[in-house]
């Protein structure tokens, strides 16, 4: 009637609402409520991601139709359960179930090809995830998600079209899967970001746990649809889901509201701030403008720095490795495993596999609910991962008994596997995407989600790939891999779990304690509540709040936290123990402690020869040109008596490999535990920490030996016991080095720690002698007695070890340490230190890596320990299987003889420490020893068999050079770096630095014995070649530090006679050395090692590793046969001399411009920075110069093409018929030179064109594009005649070598004098 119209419709148009929402509001004639928006968001995103998983699941169903793998593999299970599977199978039934397959997947490598498809899909998916997350915070998520879904549907359908198009080309399916993976990566960051925008943190866990059922619903839907359609042809199983996801993509476009802001909804209903109700209508471009928002999207690197993102991302790596292995391979596994003696059809197997996802739905909801209730995401996720381990074991072991048992175990496994996966990818991602550190910025949700799920997706790619290869051998190995992955996933959350447990303890105490707290404690408590639970940045403070009314202890000697044994000594002595006495006690106790660690570690190497009396043939293999020296008669009866019959399962044909796996399991867990132990060592009471480690080590070493009397022949028993022993062993080294470092100053560390480090060899010798003597009574005693010994010494540690001078109130002025305060109240001794007790905080793991010198020494130790631990674990075995003077030694004699290697190690450790102290040059000493170890290893292998005397001498020498740098780096170097000047006096880094260096070394220690287990089965000479190569690399890794120390010595010697100050620091050799001398050395060295390659012709050397090593050395400094190698490289050496005589490096060096440099310059090899007005540009800064990165990557591919022609063109020509004739090697080599003639023309032409056009990039890119048709024509028509071949070869050379020459010359010169360098 003339009333004022309702303003609501106008208000509705002020926001960017999806078309479907606008239609609903038009039909309803009112605005949609906030709750309705939330419901629509949940439904639409649920359907969206369920459709993503439905298309992803179809390939796992189709696998069995593409590759009906042989069923024999499914009968392989854990060794002690093989009897359960000996059931009759109806061969006709099996043949009907599996069908004939689809080429190329039905061949012998079909399983591997399917694994490669999975890898390609998931790798692209994972990489795309990072970019999708980055884009998701910058694009309109509704349109972005729609494009991703339609693209996914298209390429999923194209995979299925291969069925009707009769496509049998593997690369078709590979490319289609990769493109599908790229579009699939848009899904998860988008849906999580949208849901995170609409739901507050309080209810996220439960809501997202229920909502995350889309994963399992999608898997179930995809399985059922694909299984039902499989009977009509496997193509339908892919096309129908592809059409479904494209259709649901349209629903997303019509109805998905990205955020409350985008539709003007009032978010007060769910913990979100109210929106402004006024404003102009918002247009909706695909790409957001930053001006439209008050906050900018968080960058990729910044998102990684959000506390707890990295731990959860790495945890998800292993969690998705397990989950996606089931996603892609469970139907295949079920169809190839007899359940109650019967095999299921592909359809039935696909349907049955959906129950795993049903369990996943329950697990996701349960994990979300528990984490909400406990307010503890990390505890919940880690607990589920640990529970998944026995669930996986039970499903593999007993899932075949009956259908009922299979279903129950599959549901349980699905619950524990998918629970933490769902929790981390939903609630945790949303929590971290809105973390308090972002200060309210919500534009990080998609990026954080992409980082976490992208990292997880890399694991999701690796799991199915490994399964494709491993399952061809044994499904039990696959399940072992999955259990290990679940264990690692749980362990990666340990720090966050500890933080959450600490917060819970703190909260429970604060609720029950009426004691008032100081403002400092209250602030700390509030800080921990906001940060500790998720961040895990600070371990909880397990400190007791002392009663303010309590009186200080009257006894002066109780003012410090002294070990009980020290107190007893002082009580008996009736006076305080002096500082020197404390130092002596520390040296003795830590010496005994780590000697006992090594004694228990050495026993397994002695026991090896009793467990696996391997065939002696392998011991007779040596370097080929020395084989005649070993042709001596061997008494076969004597050998049989010496070795015995062995112990199952190690006495089989794969016994050596199993022993190698034990070593790698022990050392891998030891290495990983080392990192955590070092981190904890700087935060825990080291005396208690070390005691726990020693007692635990003793327990599990003892349990290994108990297997002898318990008659255990199950490999996995010994594997698990060794892994747990390795975990406890990792507590030792960081702890003892930290304690010794606290008590001894730097000036005497090299020699003192060199002597003290004899504990390693003494422990090895003790372990060898004890185990060898006891071996005759049964190998079990060789494990039990050392286990009891280390536990007893652990008690000695608990009673007598003073951790630091401050702990016991000793006066450290005697040894370069500050005196502690003499007046303070009694110190209680919790296991976990309180940071408020110290003025300095422990250095973090990443900060410790940044300390100068830590990374090079850690990597050097990787290879040094690879050599040392190979001897530690395999030397007794090698001796007992190698005839010395024509005779074989017994196990006991071999164990005793092997101790001489450690005797040499004692000498080497002391000598290395003393030399490094005298020279004040740790790197020079360590590198020199490693280089000397190479000929020592060669001589021991080549001549150690001649006589006992020769063997002993070479063993002592080898031990000295191998163990010397190992001892030096793990003691004096670690202590030096743990108190480095860059720490500004903070001593709370010793254990962390020690753990980083020795942890990295221990990874090498794990790899060496593992490789030896496999390689030694073929030839021990190959093992020694590996060890020599490792020693070489170890030395080379210290080159930069060696050059720096040499430069410092030169500078010191000159500065004593010259007032000019020089910097000892060297960064990059090319810009800091005299280029004429540097180039001469490189050319002469290249000539030397390439000539050595040719010398192999006359020396009749048939060892591959000789040529490999020579070529590596030649390539390091810098290409036929015989004279074809020697003559060219005599030429390069001669030319190098010419370079030395005539090459002027620059005008300054020869005074060509008198104004700039009138005086004649002296020419040292090492430049001094003070000699130049400008400083050489650093490596990272060079990468930042505009144009460097694009041209560098362009040259990567350009040289890939050019060098392929360089190395393979003569070979290709000689093997390709030209005009139906084959050319000789000589003719082919001559003809191939025309490619380089074309290259000369191309280089000149490219340079000329780029100068005329003043356009380097255009010229280079144009030549590369022209190279494509040139390559195609050369391949297709080059065989027609020699003339055609020559023309096409010339043309190809022009376009291939043109940009290569341009970039490596003119472009480099342009960029090296770029404007930002300011004439540097």
Automatic annotation (TrEMBL):
PROSITE patterns in the cross-refs: MFS
Region (Disordered): 508-529
Alphabetized UniProt keyword annotations: Membrane, Sugar transport, Transmembrane, Transmembrane helix, Transport
SUPFAM superfamilies to which the protein is assigned, alphabetical: MFS general substrate transporter
Transit peptide as UniProt keyword: no
Membrane-topology descriptor: Multi-pass membrane protein
Domain Major facilitator superfamily (MFS) profile: 43-502, 588-1047
Assigned GO CC terms: membrane
Subcellular location, record wording: Membrane
Predominant location category: membrane
Pfam family, one: MFS_1
Similarity comment: Belongs to the major facilitator superfamily. Organophosphate:Pi antiporter (OPA) (TC 2.A.1.4) family. Belongs to the major facilitator superfamily. Phosphate:H(+) symporter (TC 2.A.1.9) family.
Protein name as annotated: Major facilitator superfamily (MFS) profile domain-containing protein
Protein source organism: Escallonia herrerae
């Amino acid at each position: 009637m003339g009333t004022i119209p309702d303003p609501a419709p106008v208000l509705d148009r002020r926001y960017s609402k999806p078309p479907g929402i606008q239609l609903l509001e038009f039909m309803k004639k009112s605005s949609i409520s906030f709750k309705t928006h939330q419901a629509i968001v949940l439904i639409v995103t649920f359907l969206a991601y369920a459709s993503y998983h439905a298309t992803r699941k179809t390939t796992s169903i189709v696998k069995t139709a593409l590759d009906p793998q042989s069923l024999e593999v499914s009968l392989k299970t854990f060794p002690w359960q093989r009897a359960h599977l000996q059931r009759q199978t109806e061969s006709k039934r099996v043949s009907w179930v599996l069908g004939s397959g689809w080429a190329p997947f039905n061949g012998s490598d079909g399983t591997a090809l399917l694994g490669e498809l999975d890898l390609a899909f998931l790798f692209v998916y994972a990489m795309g995830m990072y970019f999708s997350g980055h884009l998701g915070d910058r694009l309109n998520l509704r349109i972005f998600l729609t494009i991703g879904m339609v693209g996914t549907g298209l390429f999923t359908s194209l995979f299925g079209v291969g069925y009707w198009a009769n496509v049998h080309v593997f690369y078709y399916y590979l490319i289609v899967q990769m493109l599908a993976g790229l579009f699939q990566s848009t899904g998860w960051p988008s849906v999580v970001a949208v849901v995170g925008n609409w739901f507050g943190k309080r209810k996220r866990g439960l809501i997202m746990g229920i909502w995350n059922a889309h994963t399992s619903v999608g898997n179930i839907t995809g399985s059922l649809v694909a299984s039902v359609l499989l009977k009509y042809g496997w193509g339908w199983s892919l096309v129908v889901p592809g059409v479904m996801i494209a259709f649901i993509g349209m629903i997303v476009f019509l109805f998905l509201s990205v955020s409350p802001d985008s539709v003007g909804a009032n978010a007060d209903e769910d913990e979100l701030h109210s929106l402004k109700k006024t404003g102009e209508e918002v247009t909706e471009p695909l790409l957001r403008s930053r001006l439209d928002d008050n906050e900018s999207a968080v960058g990729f690197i910044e998102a990684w720095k959000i506390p707890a993102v990295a731990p959860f991302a790495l945890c998800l790596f292993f969690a998705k490795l397990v989950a996606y292995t089931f996603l892609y391979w469970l139907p295949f596994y079920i169809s190839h495993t007899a359940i109650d003696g019967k095999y299921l059809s592909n359809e039935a197997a696909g349907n049955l596999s959906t129950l795993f996802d049903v369990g996943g739905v329950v697990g996701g909801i349960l994990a979300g609910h528990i984490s909400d209730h406990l307010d503890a995401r990390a505890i919940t996720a880690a607990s589920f991962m640990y529970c998944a381990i026995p669930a996986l074991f039970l499903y593999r072991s007993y899932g075949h008994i009956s259908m009922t048992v299979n279903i129950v175990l599959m549901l349980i496994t699905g619950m524990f596997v998918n629970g933490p996966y769902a929790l981390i990818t939903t609630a945790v991602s949303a929590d971290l995407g809105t973390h308090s550190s972002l200060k309210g910025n919500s534009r990080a949700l998609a990026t954080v989600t992409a980082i976490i799920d992208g990292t997880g997706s890399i694991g999701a790619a690796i799991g199915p790939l490994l399964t494709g290869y491993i399952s061809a051998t044994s499904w039990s190995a696959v399940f072992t891999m999955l259990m290990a992955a679940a264990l690692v996933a749980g362990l990666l959350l340990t720090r966050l779990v500890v933080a959450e447990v600490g917060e819970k303890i703190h909260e429970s105490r604060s609720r029950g304690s009426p004691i008032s707290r100081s403002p400092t404690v209250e602030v700390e408590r509030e800080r921990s509540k906001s940060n500790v639970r998720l961040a895990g940045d600070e371990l909880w403070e397990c400190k007791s709040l002392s009663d303010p009314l309590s009186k200080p202890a009257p006894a002066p000697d109780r003012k410090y936290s002294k070990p009980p044994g020290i107190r007893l000594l002082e009580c008996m002595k009736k006076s305080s123990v002096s500082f020197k006495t404390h130092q002596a006690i520390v040296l003795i106790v830590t010496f005994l402690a780590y000697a006992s660690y090594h004694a228990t570690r050495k026993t397994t190497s002695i026991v090896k020869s009793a467990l696996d009396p391997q065939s002696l043939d392998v011991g007779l293999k040596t370097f080929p040109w020395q084989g005649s020296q070993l042709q001596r008669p061997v008494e076969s009866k004597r050998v049989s008596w010496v070795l015995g019959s062995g112990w199952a399962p190690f006495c089989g044909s794969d016994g050596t490999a199993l022993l190698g796996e034990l070593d790698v399991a022990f050392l891998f867990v030891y290495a990983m535990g080392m990192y955590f132990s070092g981190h904890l060592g700087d935060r825990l009471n080291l005396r208690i920490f070390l005691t726990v480690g020693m007692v635990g080590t003793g327990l599990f070493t003892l349990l290994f030996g108990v297997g002898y009397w318990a008659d255990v022949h199950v490999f996995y028993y010994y594997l698990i016991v060794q892994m747990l022993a390795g975990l406890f062993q990792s507590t030792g080294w960081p702890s003892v080095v930290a304690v010794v470092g606290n008590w001894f100053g730097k000036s005497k560390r090299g020699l003192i720690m060199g002597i003290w480090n004899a504990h390693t060899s003494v422990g090895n010798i003790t372990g060898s002698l004890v185990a060898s003597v006891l071996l005759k009574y049964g190998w079990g005693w060789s494990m039990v007695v050392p286990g009891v010994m280390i536990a007893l010494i652990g008690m000695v540690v608990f009673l007598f070890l003073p951790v630091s001078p401050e702990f016991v109130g000793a006066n450290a002025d005697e040894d370069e340490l500050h005196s502690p305060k003499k007046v303070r109240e009694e110190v209680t001794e919790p296991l976990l230190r309180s940071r408020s007790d110290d003025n300095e905080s422990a250095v973090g793991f990443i900060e410790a890596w940044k300390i100068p010198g830590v990374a090079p020494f850690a990597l050097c130790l990787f290879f040094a320990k690879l050599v040392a631990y190979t001897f530690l674990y395999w030397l007794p075995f090698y001796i007992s299987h190698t005839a010395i003077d024509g005779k074989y030694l017994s196990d006991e004699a071999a164990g005793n003889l092997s101790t001489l290697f450690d005797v040499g190690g004692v000498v080497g450790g002391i000598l290395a420490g003393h030399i490094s102290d005298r020279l004040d040059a740790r790197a020079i000493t360590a590198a020199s020893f490693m280089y000397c170890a190479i000929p020592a290893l060669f001589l021991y292998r080549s001549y150690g068999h001649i006589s006992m005397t020769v063997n002993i001498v070479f063993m002592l020498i080898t031990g000295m050079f191998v163990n010397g740098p190992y001892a030096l780096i793990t003691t004096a170097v670690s202590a030096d770096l743990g108190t480095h000047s860059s720490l500004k006096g903070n001593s709370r880094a010793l254990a962390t630095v020690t753990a980083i260096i020795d942890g990295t070394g221990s990874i090498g220690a794990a790899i060496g014995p593992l490789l030896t287990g496999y390689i030694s089965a073929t030839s021990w000479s190959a093992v020694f070649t590996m060890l020599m190569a490792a020693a070489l690399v170890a030395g080379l890794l210290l080159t930069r530090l060696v050059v720096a120390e040499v430069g410092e010595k030169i500078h010191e010697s000159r500065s004593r006679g010259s007032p000019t100050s020089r910097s000892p620091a060297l960064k990059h050799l090319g810009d800091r050395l005299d280029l004429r001398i540097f180039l001469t050395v490189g050319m002469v060295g290249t000539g030397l090692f390439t000539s050595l390659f040719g010398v192999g012709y006359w020396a009749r050397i048939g060892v591959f590793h000789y040529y490999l090593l020579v070529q590596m050395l030649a390539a390091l400094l810098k290409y036929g046969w015989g004279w074809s190698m020697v003559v060219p490289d005599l030429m390069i050496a001669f030319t190098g001399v010419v370079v030395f005589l005539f090459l002027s490096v620059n005008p300054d060096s020869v005074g060509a411009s008198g104004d700039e440099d009138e005086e004649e310059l002296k020419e040292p090899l090492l430049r001094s920075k003070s000699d130049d007005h400008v400083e050489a540009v650093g490596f990272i800064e060079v990468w930042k110069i505009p144009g460097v990165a694009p041209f560098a990557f362009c040259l990567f591919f350009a040289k890939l093409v050019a060098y392929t022609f360089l190395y393979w063109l003569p070979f290709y020509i000689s093997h390709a018929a030209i005009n139906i004739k084959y050319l000789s090697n000589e003719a082919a080599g001559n003809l191939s030179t025309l490619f380089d003639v074309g290259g000369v023309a191309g280089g000149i032409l490219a340079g000329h064109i780029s100068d005329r056009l003043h356009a380097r990039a255009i010229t280079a890119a144009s030549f590369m594009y022209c190279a494509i048709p040139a390559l195609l024509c050369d391949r297709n028509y080059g065989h027609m005649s020699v003339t055609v071949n020559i023309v096409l070869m010339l043309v190809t050379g022009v376009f291939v070598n043109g940009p290569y020459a341009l970039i490596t010359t003119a472009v480099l010169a342009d960029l090296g004098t770029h404007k930002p360098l300011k004439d540097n």
